[in-house]
Amino acid sequence: MIDFIQMLINGIAAGSSYALIGLAMVIIYKTSEVPNFAQGEMALISTYVAYMLLEQHQFPSYLAFPLSLVFAVVLGCILEFTILRRAKEPNVLGMIIITIGIEMILMGLVSWKFGAEQKSMPFPISPYDSVMIGDFFVSTLEVLTLVVALCTMIVLFLFFRYSRLGMAMKATQQNPMAARIMGIRTRRILMATWGISSLVGASAGLLLSPVIMQPYMMWDPMLKGFAAAVMGGMTSLPGAVFGAYLLGIIENLFGGYISIEFKSVVAFAVIVLMLCIRPSGLFARHYVKKV
Amino acid sequence: MTFFSIDNLAIAFGGLQALQDIRFDVQAGEVFAIIGPNGAGKTTLFNCINGIYRPDAGNIRFDGRNIQGLRPDQVARLGIARTFQNIELFANMTTMENIMLGRHVFMRTGLFRGAAMWGPRSFAGREERDHRRQVEKIIDLLRLQAVRGKLVGALPYGTQKMVELARALALEPKLLLLDEPCAGMTAEEKQDMIFWIKDIQNDLGITILLIEHDMRMVMDISDRILAINFGQPITIGTADEVRRHPEVLKAYLGEEDHRESAA
Ligand SMILES: Nc1ncnc2c1ncn2[C@@H]1O[C@H](COP(=O)(O)OP(=O)(O)O)[C@@H](O)[C@H]1O
Ligand SMILES: [Mg+2]
To answer: What is the ipTM metric for this complex?
Structure first.
């Protein structure tokens, strides 16, 4: 029983970072209808910017982390403005290829500038600190990740419900032409979604960096986040969060009871199963999107 | 100075000349109708005015300036609102949210609006209250109280058309483009719609460009009518003049009026 609960806790902890990536991907998918395969590497480069500021320029962490998040927003906006917007007669397949291209460029840039070896991020919290909750050990970093994930969800919820920009984003997602007729600058909105998505993704990168920091660090979380988003139907923010925690928990239970070697693979078995049974995802909302 | 005018407008899609030599002007306060058979180019004309399409040639002047080549959002900001032939609502939002989005251009507080965020007495709170008051006025005017909190995607067709009209009014337009506002409505809903359009013209003082197939309605509420066929103008005039024009009879009235008088 103790083991079971401990595994559950570990699952929730892992799920939090999947949730952040999943949210980031859903935010872009809803407006652009592109699964953004560069999401992980956008987070990667933002994380390395934090590392660079801390290690090479001796910035204090209260400056370095916020600055790297600002960098993430700017990066998202720039990628949308300079690359994706230039696509002539864009179709989904072409756009996916573009995001994969961006992914490889960013990855190459990081490897070239910082090298492929494991770095140690001077994060204020060590991954080995832990707190006792009742009889269970939870690492402080995992608690922080969970808190950040929860706060992000709340802020995103408020943002889409109460802010002018959030409402304009929702409108653009549901009917771009009507949005333009209402005076909404839909291209700017698209750019802003990339910025916000990049910010959410980068927070996941930063939270993962104390444990693992090398150019491939985002591969696994990014695929799991994508898987979580797909499970949630790809267009639902709560769906992606739910998918992420479900995935994290299943993965850890499987690793604990059945096979630790296949722990990482089980996520994809779950997806395949899911897509066979319920292809539109758990949370898909079938509203008609007019083109 | 004319309030709104189009001069020499032309647009082609591939080999298809969708509009050519279109010219007319509209006086402030007028209801100006555009009629023509299906595929004549009426909706395309609206899309050019809105900035959704870029015409190949011609001028569009509104309120003393050339609006040809502006983006749809810029045209909206100048005070031109629109409804669509095939309803274009935000299907997954409530009636209230849809109409509130019509006020987007007036919202100042960039990032956060809402009393929920900053308290009712803050600038954002006051601003939101003003917008809500405007929206409530429109909801009262068009009698949409009963569906205020409902998702519009699930509403009956006729009601959706009303919500779309309400959203267009929320923009406080000087010029309102209505693309077949009565299409697909029941006889009773049509009567209501005619009534609202007259109200919008008389009480709100909004100039209206109207595309409509229902000839009786067009004759009833339009001050002047432009008839087009195959993208070319046939004639402009009052209801009586247009009704009697031989080419109009041939191209358009022919089919419908005969059917109607036979019935
Ligand atoms: N985006 C477009 N691409 C190609 N052809 C178009 C486009 N928009 C309209 N058309 C064509 O222009 C003609 C006029 O269409 P439309 O303006 O919708 O007619 P109406 O509203 O008078 O029924 C039609 O033949 C239509 O197929
Ligand atoms: Mg039409």
So the answer is: 0.86
Q: Could you tell me the domains of chain A?
A: 2-277 (1.10.3470)
Q: Residues B228-252: pLDDT tens digits?
A: 999 999 999 988 888 888 887 777 6
Report all structural domains of chain B as residue ranges with CATH numbers, in order of start: 1-79+173-263 (3.40.50.300), 89-171 (no CATH)
Helices (H) and strands (E) in chain A, counts: 11, 2
State in Å: Cα B42 to ligand 2 middle.
Answer: 5
Report the pLDDT value the prediction gives residue B257, as an integer from 0 to 100: 46
CA B252 → CA B23, B215, B242, B258, B259, distances in Å? 20, 10, 11, 10, 12
Is the per-residue pLDDT at A69 higher than 90?
Answer: yes
Tell me which residues of chain A have a C-beta less than 8 Å from any C-beta of chain B: 158, 162-165, 167-168, 170-171, 174-175, 177-186, 285, 287-290
* Structure confidence by residue, pLDDT tens digits, A249-273: 999 888 888 877 777 788 788 878 8
Cα distance from A143 to chain B (closest Cα, Å)?
Answer: 27
The model's pTM: 0.85
| All residues at 6 or more sequence positions from A144 whose CB lies less than 8 Å from its CB, including other chains | A125, A207
Q: Which numbered atom of ligand 1 lies nearest the CA of B14?
A: 4
- Please give, rounded to a whole number of angstroms, the shortest distance from the CA of B20 to a CA of chain A: 24
